[in-house]
Amino acid sequence: MPPLNMVQAINQALQQEMQVDDSVIVLGEDVGVDGGVFRVTDGLLAEFGPARVIDTPIAESGIVGSSIGMAIAGLKPVAEIQFEGFSYPALDQLISHASRMRSRSRGRFHVPLVIRMPHGGRVNALEHHSESPETHFVHTPGLKCVIPSTPYDAKGLLLAAIRDPDPVIFLEPKKLYRLFRQEVPEGPYTIPLGKASVVHEGEDITIIAYGSLVHDALQAAESLSEKYKVEVIDLRSLSPLDKDTILKSVIKTGRCIVVHEAPKTLGMASEIIAILNEHALYDLQAPVARLTGYDTIVPLPKLEKYYQPSQQKIMAKIHEVMQQ
Amino acid sequence: MIHEFKFPDVGEGITEGELVEWLVKEGDSVRHDQALAKVETDKALIDIPSPQDGIILKLHVKAGSTIKVGQTLVTFGSKGDNILPQSQSPQEHDSVGVVGRLEVSDRIIPSPKPAVQASIPAQQMKILPAIRILAGERGIDIAKITPSGSQGQITKQDVLDAAAGKSQAIAQQPQPANPSGQQPEVKIQMKYDFYGPIEHVPIKGVRKAIAKKMEESWRNAVPVTHMDEVDVTSLVNIREKEKEKAAKKNIKLTYLPFIMKAAIEALKEHPYLNSSKEEDEIILKKYYNIGIAVETEDGLIVPVIKGADRKSILALANEIQEIAEKTKERKIDLADLQGGAFTITNIGSIGGVFATPIINYPECAILGLGKMQERPAFEGSKLVKKMILPLFITFDHRIADGAEAARFMNKVKESLQDPDWLLLEL
């Protein structure tokens, strides 16, 4: 079995689940004839036909709205939003309907829906194409939100998301789409939603990251391995959040840096630091630090490296926190 | 055996080139050192030799494209090798999006393995930062406290209890208790170093201020010192004649007020020496506030005579005397230390011919007086006794040049050599 990149792993997950479950429907802009702007849905139209692989108009609110209807009626739509920054017209559908249908109907209806979208920047693309909107989803009760950092996790998390009875936002770090390959089991498997992964073990400091920055954190950990034993946690699931794994690690190390591309204010780091404050304050050896984007719109490509966290910035931050 | 060949570092700082032409095609058998392609760098057109014998499975770039050092050019294999069997390899296309640049690579990352978290004990002492500081202030070793908090943390009361126990323990000991409860700071100071006995003197107070001021001057100004000698025989005669009269008025008539006057007349002609530099501007001072360097027990202090141009020589002598006394007694007002534009230092009163004073930053210049001495000199062909005063001025070369300093000095000399003329100018 050849190693797959993330695009191929997601494609394989969709293909395999569509083969075994007729209720799985793929829809979105250019997902059919073109096979998706990043080729994630390539080949699906040919195999499953236009009734199950639907090219939609450029209308995100419509894509998500009709997906909600299909889901309530018993289908399992997997909708693609072409870029994360185009999800905003669909926020009303997600927040006002998808997330609360189970609550609103007192459990009579539920919405087994997956919304896939590329995530994050560091690929020299303009604003809507480089954003990190996860806070909107994580802050909305009733939505789940996951983000893989490897082809293996991408396949396992997507299958778990499709099989989940409630709406799941599936973020795909676009920088990682073709950045590397990995051995991925040929058959279907799932990775439970809500479980973080300790991807590098250490005793001195915990770096919490997700998406493409997991790899920068890993490189930082390797580069500093002679000086510090750095533990790296890949959250994988932003909602629900795996508090147990976070707490276990930080209580062990006593030091923590949370890293994300999204703007600083009310980003994932804010919540994680609050959780550490509630449950691990007495174990801290230094204030919990965060390394994030700025509270601005993603800049033009020339300035992107200054805006985004990176391996170098993570290493500098580790030095800083270890000095305290 | 599949092997990827990357564009090698050909040296001379070359990082990229244009692949002009392939000299082989996919499926070809090549020998070690056989030319694979012509590549044009900004230095030369070069042939890229094959690193091995083998079969070309794939050429990764098109002729005419730019290649970077480290980029994969060729995949080699042996007979029967395939790169990725078509039957197994999902077909892949480039993105159709026009936004962004996705990096593509075939780098393999390791497969996930079940994480086994090593069991490391949690950090020993659980304690809030504020309480940790409190414990430090009270000199309590928190490792010896038994925590009573609900999460196993040391509470404030734990620290206070420990402190109470500690002060009792101290009270029982013969040595006096530390009234504030604070642990004195222990700083080990060696009385010897490798070569012999030494003493540690902390830098503080006036010494600290001087150090800071001198550093600031040395870091910022560009000092040059100009030196000269003045025949002050006539001036000495005047002073000898008048000092008794001044003494009756309780005024100690020194040479300093004369020199101050002469300097002010010279500053009027050379205003850039009575100035300071602020960023892109030179601030010319239209007033003549002259600082005088006064030695005190604690170090050098420079009080300022304000409006010295409007005061008589006797008034200046009186004021210099007063202000110097106050300074030595450290009773000088802060206001009397500020507002200077030019400084005079009289190191000659202690000794020495010439020195190179440091500018009293941000002023432009400082005038130094050496020790006045009798010297033989020629007047025509006759050898006569003269009183000679060495003068030297350090100035900031960013503001003024040597010529200006020399002319300033000539003017000062002129006035001091002929004090009658100085009198007419006042």
Describe the structure.
Chain A has helices at residues 6-20, 44-48, 60-72, 91-96, 101-104, 134-138, 151-163, 213-223, 243-253, 268-279, 304-307, 311-323, and strands at 24-28, 53-55, 76-80, 114-119, 144-146, 168-173, 181-182, 197-200, 205-209, 230-234, 237-239, 256-259, 289-291. With 324 residues, chain A is of the alpha/beta class. In chain A, the strands form 2 sheets. A 7-stranded mixed sheet of chain A has the order 2-1-3-4-6-5-11, with helices on both faces. In chain A, strand 5, helix 7 (151-163) and strand 6 (168-173) form a beta-alpha-beta unit. Chain A is globular. The mean pLDDT of chain A is 96. By secondary structure, chain B is α+β, with helices and mostly antiparallel strands. Chain B is built from 8 helices and 22 strands. In chain B, strands 12, 15, 18, 19, 20, 21 and 22 form a 7-stranded mixed sheet that branches. In chain B, helix 7 packs across helix 8. Chain A binds chain B through residues 1-5, 7-8, 11-12, 30, 34-35, 37-39, 42-43, 83, 123-126, 129-130, 150, 152-153, 174-175, 177-183, 197-199, 201, 203, 248-249, 251-252, 254, 281-283, 285, and chain B through 84-85, 88-97, 99-112, 115, 117-118, 120, 122-123, 126-128, 149, 151-153.
Summarize the structure.
Chain A is α/β, with parallel strands linked by helices and 324 residues long.
- Estimate what percentage of residues of chain A fall within beta strands: 15-25%
Rg of chain B, Å, rounded? 42 Å
Order of helices and strands of chain A: HEHEHEHHEHEHEEEEHEEHEHEHH
Q: Whole-number average pLDDT of chain A? A: 96
Shape of chain A: globular
Key features of this structure:
heterodimer; A: 324 residues; alpha/beta; Rossmann fold; 2 domains; seven-stranded mixed sheet; five-stranded mixed sheet; 17% strand; B: 426 residues; alpha+beta; OB fold (Dihydrolipoamide Acetyltransferase, E2P); Dihydrolipoamide Transferase; Chloramphenicol Acetyltransferase; 3 domains; four-stranded antiparallel sheet; 8 helices; 26% helix; 24% strand
